[in-house]
Amino acid sequence: MPQLSPRITTLNGDGDDGWGVFYRARTMIAAGTPVTELTIGEHDIGTDTSILAEIHRSAAAGHTGYAMVPGVRALRDTVAARIAERTGVPTTYENILITPGGQAALFAAHMAVLSPGDAGLFIEPYYAVYPGTVRAASGQPLPVPTNAEDAFLPTYDQISAATRSAPRARSLLINTPNNPTGTIYPRETLDGIARACRAHDLWLISDEVYDTQVWEGEHLSPRALPGMEDRTLVIGSMSKSHAMTGSRIGWICAPAEVIPPLIDLATNTTYGVPGYIQDAALFALTAGPELETSVAEPFRRRRALALSILEGQDIVRVIPSRGAMYLMLDIRATGLDGQDFANRLLDAHRIAVMPGESFGTSGAGHLRVALTVADDRLAAALDTLTTFAANLARETA
Predict the structure, then answer these.
(1) pLDDT digits (tens, 9 = 90+) for 378-394
(2) pTM for the model
(3) How many domains does the chain have?
(4) Do the domain assignments include residue 357?
(5) Is residue 328 part of a domain?
(6) CATH number, domain at 305?
(7) Residues 192, 123: one domain?
(8) Which of 58, 165, 344, 373 is deepest in the core (most CB within 10 A)?
(9) Measured distance CA(122)–CA(104) in Å, rounded
(10) Same domain for 209 and 356?
(11) Is residue 388 part of a domain?
(12) Which positions fall inside the Aminotransferase class I/classII large domain (predicted)?
């Protein structure tokens, strides 16, 4: 048959997307083997019934045809008002494109700012799809390494060094609150990021889908920093804030001049988001803060539970986690890398976690644990994990 495009056959670079443990766990579950899954960021509570009722109401009322490709005006207005209130930056519907989830927004943002062959930078450790998203936009993915000892916070010097190695560097993708590490970039870190973007004339793509999951400190959008409004594209989503992962609805907030070309892209790719899903998102965003708090609360509680368990031992070290639904665990004291540890843990105890190597070389020797199972199951899994790690450390001592 005719040859496929390298654009699609090379999305995963070396052919491994780093999700081998996850796929193994799912295969075991499909075969009837019970597994405690602490892998992906999927809420265990499901979408609130009031949002599901709104989906049904809107669909039954006939909002099942083509919706406006940029997004329903009322929803764009509401998203803009939400961003303006949270950041203090004037924002209108002209700054907003509604997308089929945050992933589609990430792809569209890179399509907007990268020409074929341009380098798209992103911070390590990174959400596993970042390199493939850059490649999908015909860009060259370029990770910016960080250090566990610095809580994986990037510095101006690290970004500048990466930029100097790529003469065609055009964009920088950041994520705060961060997946996989749980870190929240403080003002000092964001100032360094902004300074690097201005110094090297980079577009900044800011993935802020976890902005409602803040446990310590505060979230600051870099779009609000001096000189950054005109070079920042912000990615938002209903998936994490309202447990609407399967509904596939998110947005891009960008300079007004960027939105019309993005609308052209959406017209030729996704052709928008179903109207009944947009109506449900509008309902959810205007339902009040109590709904968002109820979605975030289990992760706040489980984080506290997990930290109390991990404080009782000295083999597994926790990267400071101030947001998002994950913990990043340093297991280098066991003598194993994250991939080997995760596979052994799955085989021995039927507990699935993500190896840190799934998120780039900076994550080597770490694990990402998703706080997405009931409290008692989480506690039992972490007790087992720490005991397993202690036994491995003794064997290699």
Answers:
(1) 999 999 999 999 999 99
(2) 0.96
(3) 2
(4) yes
(5) yes
(6) 3.90.1150.10
(7) yes
(8) 58
(9) 17
(10) no
(11) yes
(12) 35-384
The answer on 304 and 250 residing in a single domain is no
Bridge-based pairing of strands 140-144 and 96-99 is: unpaired
**Residue 107 and residue 202 in one domain:** yes
Question: Do the domain assignments include residue 241?
Answer: yes
Span 304-322, pLDDT tens digits: 999 999 998 999 999 999 9
pLDDT tens digits along 254-311: 999 999 999 999 999 999 999 999 999 999 999 999 999 999 999 999 999 999 999 9
Q: Tell me the pLDDT tens digit for each residue of 239-249.
A: 999 999 999 99
Residue 201 domain boundaries: 92-263
